[in-house]
Amino acid sequence: MISGFSGAGKGTLVKRLLSSYDSYALSVSMTTRSPREGERDGVEYFFADREQFEKKIREDGFIEYACYCDNYYGTPKDYVEEQLNAGKDVILEIEIQGALKVKQQFPESLLLFVTPPSAVELKRRLLGRGTESQEVIAKRLARAVVESNGIEAYDYVVVNDDLDACVAEIHQLVNAARRAPVRSGAFIRRIREELKELGNEGN
Amino acid sequence: MISGFSGAGKGTLVKRLLSSYDSYALSVSMTTRSPREGERDGVEYFFADREQFEKKIREDGFIEYACYCDNYYGTPKDYVEEQLNAGKDVILEIEIQGALKVKQQFPESLLLFVTPPSAVELKRRLLGRGTESQEVIAKRLARAVVESNGIEAYDYVVVNDDLDACVAEIHQLVNAARRAPVRSGAFIRRIREELKELGNEGN
User: Fold this and answer.
1) Do A173 and B192 touch (CB under 8 A)?
2) Domains (range + CATH), chain A
3) CB-CB contact of B76 with B61 (8 Å)
4) Under 8 Å CB-to-CB from A85, ≥6 apart: which residues?
5) pLDDT digits 0-9 by tens, B67-84
6) Residues forming beta bridges with residue A25, ordered by sequence position
7) Does A71 touch chain B (CB under 8 A)?
8) Stretch B10-38: mean pLDDT, rounded?
9) Is B156 on the interface with A (CB under 8 A)?
10) Residue A119 is nearest to which of B122, B138, B195, comparing CB atoms?
């Protein structure tokens, strides 16, 4: 899961991860927010109205969903399960509330928090995007203050300064994380069993 | 901190880490156990008798110490602090009890657990060492069963199959671990403060 301040460059990072390595699959979220310029239904998001979204909630069709800036965002269940079964690392670009809900259900999932090198740089990127009103930018900065209080819940904090370096680093972190005990359960169980058997032979 | 089953190859890995990268310094432990063939005082260990060791305990001269297989093992404080202040990553080759004690005092420290690819391979290596009696080997295998129950407390489990690959992987894990929030405290505090300041400017 990739979270981070709005304007940290998560979207670009995710696109580059997908094009650079074939081990990833992208979970496309569903949202009730309006499409931004150039966003296509089923690519950046599945766009839905509140009624459609709430129907899918009732059908238990989301791994998680949350309301953020007055819009619903959710992760449809079926595609994620399909890709995990195919051995892919599924990327969720997800805000912090959702990330923590998924982590509860899937303790082996990895939480990455992406941040620009400074708050000034964050504001510069939000302004540079040119698609958001001043009011929305102020709202996003205020939200960033709140989100920054959740950073400690993440596995890794990644500074997105140089894009290429950041993509490579995220891939390294994903691989490093495989060595954490929570993701090495099968190996740990096997060697424990083997050790017990060897110990019994010695008696 | 590098822990792992006796016979996992920790000593060789540590030597290779020190010779391959200049960012590491090795903490030399003090022990009351007898030197093995070829071990030199102040290099593999500081060798001491029980009386000397217990005097140093009373003087609060250890970060941690523990009793293992009827011998004391401890980490003298002064050298570690000196090397940390010089910006080095200090390696402690340390058994599991000691590792957990150090982690309590230094939450930013990293716990690596080294294991051979299988229990059979572990026994093969212990036999191949040729310096241990059958009784000691049986004791170490029994100990490994107990130690395997502590693996979940470690940050990473590293399989030492190919030595070169394992050394490179450990170095990558050390660098990955710097991105964990517990080791990125200064950055997190700074960006939080900056965000608050920017938010206040907006009001």
Assistant:
1) no
2) 2-202 (3.40.50.300)
3) yes
4) none
5) 877 899 899 998 899 999
6) A90
7) no
8) 94
9) yes
10) B195
